[in-house]
Amino acid sequence: MLDHLRLTVRDVEEARRLYDPVMRCLGLEPVERDDDGAAWGSQEAGWLILTPASRDAAHDAGAPGLHHVAFKAASRELVDRVHELVVAAGAEVLDPPGPYDAEPDHYAVFFRDPNGLKLEVVYGIHRERLAGSGRPSAP
Predict the structure, then answer these.
(1) In 3-state terms, what secondary structure has residue 111?
(2) Domain parsing of the chain, residue ranges
(3) Which helix (H) or strand (E) holds 14?
(4) In 1-135, where do the E strands start and end?
(5) Do 136 and 127 touch, CB atoms closer than 8 A?
(6) Residue 82 CB burial class (10 angstroms; 0-12, 13-18, ≥19)
(7) pTM of the complete model
(8) 3-state secondary structure of 81
(9) In this structure, are residues 36 and 12 in contact, taking their beta carbons and an 8 Å threshold?
(10) 69-100, pLDDT tens digit by residue?
(11) At what angle are helices 12-25 and 76-88 packed, to 10 degrees?
C-alpha cells in the first residue's frame, strides 16, 4: 500500500544506529543517497527514508499527525530478534514482544527512536479480519 515513508530526524547518524540493524533484520537494504539523509528499501517492501530536520522540536504522538509506524515482520522470531537489536542499540522499549490488541495473531514489540517516534514491529496483523470484513481493522 505504501511506496515509501519519509521520517524527519534531528540527527541522521544517531537515528541510523537504531534503524540500520532493524531495517536490515526486516530484509531492507541500505540505499545510497546523494543528500544528508539515509534510506533502506526493496522493490517488494518499499522504502524508508530519514531526512535531517530543519528545526529541533519534540514529536508528540497525541497531537494531530503521526501516532506510530508499524513495520511488518515475517515471523514471531523476527519480532524477538528486533527486540534484541533495539535493546542493544539502547533504544527505549515501550512494550516487549508479546500479543497485543486482544488478537491472537498480533505479536509485536513497541519502542521509541532517538527522536521520540513510536515504532512497532509486528507479525500477523489481523489478516483474517481484514480479508473477511471488507473494512480495515486498526491495530
Answers:
(1) strand
(2) 4-53+66-133
(3) helix 12-25
(4) 4-9, 29-30, 38-42, 46-52, 68-72, 92-99, 107-112, 118-123
(5) no
(6) buried
(7) 0.86
(8) helix
(9) yes
(10) 999 999 999 999 999 999 999 999 999 999 98
(11) 150
- CA distance to 16, 32, 60, 64, 101, per residue, from 21 (Å): 8, 16, 25, 30, 26
Q: pLDDT tens, 38-55? A: 999 998 889 999 999 998
In contact, 105 and 57? CB cutoff 8 Å: no
- Using DSSP bridges, classify how beta strands 38-42 and 68-72 pair: parallel, antiparallel or unpaired: unpaired
Residue type for position 91: A
Here the cell at position 63 is 497531537
Please give the grid coordinates belonging to residue 132: 473477511
CATH class for the region spanning 4-53+66-133: alpha beta
CA distances, 48 to each of 6, 23, 39, 97, 139 (Å): 6, 9, 5, 23, 21
